[in-house]
Amino acid sequence: MRTLRRVLSVLVSVLLLFSISGCWNYTEVDDMSIVAGVAIDKNKADGKLLLTVELVDTNGGLDKTQAGFKMISLSGDTMFEIVRNIISITGKKLFWSHAKAIIVSEEVAREGLIKAIDWYSRDTETRSDVFIFVSGEKTAREVLNLNSTTQAIMSFELAQMMRDEKYISSAPTVEIWDFIDKLETLGNNAVAPIVNIHVKNGQKNERVEGTAVFVEDRMVGKLDGDETKSMLFVKNLITGGVLDIEDKHGTPSYSLEIISNQTKLKPRMAGGRLQMQIETMTQTGLDEVMTVEGFMKGETIQDIEKRASERMEADILAVIHKVQQEYDADIFAFGENVHENQPKIWAKVKAHWPEAFADLDVTVSSKVEIQSSAKTTRAIRLGD
Amino acid sequence: MSKEIIPAGQSISIAVLFISGSSLFMGTSGQSGNSSWIAIIFAISLAVPLMLIYARLHVLFPGKDLYDMLIAVFGAVFGRVLSCLYIWYALHLGALVLRNFGEFSKTVALTSTPMIAPMLMIGLLCIWVVNAGMEVLGRSAKFLLLFSFIVIVLIQLLSVPKFEYHHMKPLLDSGWGPVFADTAGSFTFPFAEIVIFLGAFNVLPAKGSATRVLVSGSLIAGIIIIFVTLRNLLVLGPDILSSLYFPSYVAVSRINIGDFLTRIEGSAAIVFVTALFIKVSLCLYVTCNGVSKVFKLKSYRSVVLQMGLIMVYLSDFIYKDIMEMQYFAYHIYKVYALPFQVVIPVMLWIAAEVLSRRKSSKSI
Prior knowledge:
Oligomer: heterodimer
Protein name (chain A): Ger(X)C family spore germination protein
Membrane topology (chain A): Lipid-anchor
Pfam family, one (chain A): Spore_GerAC
Strand order of the largest sheet of chain B: 1-2
Number of helices of chain A: 14
Domain Spore germination GerAC-like C-terminal (chain A): 209-373
Subcellular location (chain A): Membrane
Order of helices and strands of chain B: HHHHHHHHHHEEHHHH
Largest sheet of chain B: 2 strands, antiparallel
């Protein structure tokens, strides 16, 4: 009897071992199509959404050093419908966790992005840390299609670019999660980076530069790379980049490398009007001197600092005025700042914030400090 | 059968995991946006006097559990009716918690696995541990608390880079009204749910201090909940926070340390499962204990399997979907739970005080 029980329990254990180990509904990696990124366009023919997915091709041979890619386009009424219908082309279910980029065409962005991104943030198979871009070209899929010329998975390249954006500061880095966060927050409008196709000497490359400005979920306008940098200064998101400064004759001759930046926003009432005081404090290093005269002769470090500060104040004011007058989109989160620091004033202006933002008084005071001059103490001297 | 006794340290562990269990992944009720942590502090300070009342009951009836007390104070019939109510409350609460876990796994972790499968697995585990006895539960709670504690602290530290402190401002953005509503919400769920523990007071040592167990248990759990709520708030911000079913899970999924340490939310979910296991087990034990007391069974062990399976099935059909669960947890529950958590215990306490005074004056 005891041996029978023992044999039975061993049998049961062995059976259980084989039947309950592993997942309920596992999928092997070769049964999935791994999505690297998507482009969302509007189909010209029928006005529906047109989705283009860039898939990582897992059937690489031994001689390949890099994974290949595949492109599939399909149109449909809703995002999820298209995503599922793509299975009828690939024969494999799409796997979304590794997707890195969403590119939307300007047309879709101008009509409203909610319909394109709600599925992405709601579904459980997708992750909300994917980067969002607005295409500067006619369609979004053109950008993804560049992979045939650059021979690399475009979405992963774009994601890499966003990671290194901190050294240029010419485009905002926006994950879809941040984007939705901005949509939901009152007194804060969303932005997204613009991706272009850069053509020089017949070479086509993708280039991320500039900002798409949104009001609610609709794109209303663009900022170029320099304006974007000023915008990032206001938002205190500058982590690096270069300031180019003219010498006293007006020719660009100094480069300042931004080491760190601290921006403070101070909302206050001045003469019955809401005023936003912006103070920036930038630490830089002098990293390039393009004149023979050098920076000690005729021009002191203080002169360069002063010129840089003035230039920055003017740039920041210009971009704020542009956004106030042309787009009326509070991309600088001034409203949120008023809300957080002056809740009483916010209660008064909340109802008509877009108008209040448009005629908000803004003052800027910038301070640029040069901390070092890199490796050399003076300009290159011509000895003859 | 020898009487089961578990030491104070283990009962504190049970209490901590019991209270913090659901809130670790459900979050607390969040109408007050960025002031919800104030509501939690209020809820804790409201809960402490209630804990003292519960603990006083243990002093009045050493070594007795809730059902013994009810029968002793309100008589054999009415006491049994009230006991039946508590049996229902414990069974229902256990089912709700199981369902939370079921919805959690269905929504985020195992999307195409039927909900009943993970719930049944946890349910069977709870049946097993309750059948093995409260001492086993106490020992596992002590170990699991240590483990959960390490994970919670680790995740707290890892999410610091994602903190955006400006989400805290302005203080009391929406005024005091929502804060008080949230206080009521957090008081009933999760703090005062510890009333279930009254049903297991027979395992506390007769001379031991229930005050220490309950008060320190709810304080430690309260601190954990405040930290978790603050983390969720600082990482997600009040606007997004209010739209999520499982804010902790999403907050943890935002962690990204150098593009290397990412996607750890799956591992963090282990804490939910351990805390939930203790919570369901205690509910199951209290249910079975109640049944055995009401029907004068020799041991509660004979009904564990049946009650456990009923609990699992109940949790399967108790709500239609996750929207209903959310609505019940944050809107109906605070009214529904109040009689069980406050009204009946306070009645019991007053009656017991009167009875004991009378008895002591007679004996003199």
